[in-house]
Amino acid sequence: MNEVDLATTKVHELNAALHGVTATAGERSWNVLNPRGHHSIAAGLNAPLSVLVKGHVGYYCGGMNKEADVTITGNAGPGVGENIMSGLIRVKGNASQYAGASGHGGTLVIEGDAASRCGISMKGVDIVVGGNVGHMSAFMAQAGNLIVCGDAGHHLGDSIYEAHLFVRGSIDSLGADCIEKELRSEHIDVLERLLQIAGIKAQAKDFRRYGSARKLYNFHIDHAHSY
Amino acid sequence: MTQQPKETPDGNPEAYREWLATRPSHTFPKSVLAEIYRAADDGLYEIRGFGAKRRITTFDDLLFLGASMSRYPLEGYRERCDTNVVIGTRFAKKPIELKIPITFAGMSFGALGTHAKEALGRAATELGTTTTTGDGGMTDEERRSSKTLVYQVLPSRYGLNPDDLRRCDAIEVVVGQGAKPGGGGMLLGQKINARVAKMRTLPEGIDQRSACRHPDWTGPDDLEIKINELREITDWEKPIYIKIGATRVKYDVQLAVKSGADAIVLDGMQGGTAATQDVFIEHVGIPTLPAVRIAVEALQEMDMHRKVQLIVSGGIRSGADVAKALALGADVCSIGTAALIALGCNKPMYLEDYHKLGTEPGSCHHCHTGRCPVGVTTQIPEYEQRLSADQGARWLRNYVTTMLLELQTIARACGKNHVHNLEPEDMVALTVEAAAMAGVPLAGTSWIPGRG
Prior knowledge:
heterodimer; A: 2 domains; eleven-stranded mixed sheet; 2 helices; B: alpha/beta; TIM Barrel; two-stranded antiparallel ribbon; 16 helices; 16 strands; globular
């Protein structure tokens, strides 16, 4: 295992070292100490690494991740796991706004709460939030699953496309074109699989499902008030 | 009371009654009437392609002062007049060098067909310049055909992929576009076929309205951190551009510099689009001409002129336009619509297909329908096969090389051995408006409006 102390090493030196690891060569297991809110820690990883960040991180930790497994023991700033492609990012604390923004694949687990716009523009990522999510979460969400074990703020799933949203608690309001939908057995399977990956004990049947009413897919003047 | 004449001088009472009845309104001319009828019928603003059609002040209203007694010119075709430009000298480990100061602007696969995209890539490679991806991501064909490829990071993030970031040569963070500053892109349902839908992770056939803001940053302080992330992901190798639509140019340029841009792409209101509301195209943003001058002054104020390269686009059509933009201080000009025209846009062929769209060659702006008669902005095989990538690349190479010769002709006539040595002092303006916007004197006077 390699250990990098960001009190003495620059973030770009850490990232360059992590980018140097390939599928076949280099140390796979890394610990990062003293992250102290630095930005872009472990961004752009491109191999099956395991990175443990001990502390709080700033913006875009694990941005555009491919294949790697990144765990943050503290809180994460804005855009954690933005545009994630594959692999797993886990935040043991809370996450700031736009967690998992435009993620194309992989899994993002936030054990605490996530702020506003969690899963904005998501394109295939699976996001599991142990606590609550803020307003405008899953805004323009295109594909993937967002599971919220707590409550959701206002305008959940506004202008949503084909993403699936699951919320166990209350919802302040649904956004434009987002409606409640039937929770069928295939959705129970998705919930059980993702809750297990997240290590969160919750009953799949306690969730309600939300998705697109598909009324705004093609413009019609009589829907102008919905925009 | 004056008695009204009973007939016209030629003695035709019917024609006279007709003449009396014909009194068109300046407020409601036929074009305005037609638009009101159309809106009442369709219940939707007009969405169209192409750029601004209204008359605005352009580079046409500037003239060069060739060399004479007080300056001596360089010999055309014999004495050197260099055209190379390096972009990304500020932070990038691997700046890119262009042989010519003319690049191809970002146009999406989806808006354009594969043949048009491939023609652009091949022409750019042969010309020693760059082409640019668009909303919807990078295709393998595009990467293969373009030696130096600029990859756009847009608000929609359609198809955004770290592998493509790593395999591009420069990154362009698109904040705005001249045709629609403050708005996101549009691709109407008829153009969202299976391949385009898959690249954008969207259902087929929907009216796709791209986001107008990036999902994971707000404002210049965030953008600085975002750009830092893109540099981290690509190990600080690639030049990073910021593209803005021309509006509050001074502040936007200075904030782009502050955000850490290697280069700024400044798109004036004449900039084209594949599909946007007409009201946006015609009523939002400022023309390219004043935008260049303001941007150069903003860079000079920060001592960043020529350190952060300025790439100007929006209605650039000829070597003279490029020369004028460079003389005002731009480093590079970028062409979009003009390149599509070289590929055949609006060419008088396949007339029956123009008529099916309800238009004529010369007036067509139906890029948004995906039924481009000349095979440029279409994904329909029947239309697309009308443009071969070979022929398209040849046309583009001819056209851009002609522009380059025009540019060098002007630069040599002004006695410059590099096109970047052209300067505002080499120009005068034909109109008061152009003089004020460009900050050069009205021809025959020493008067620059607004400067005493």
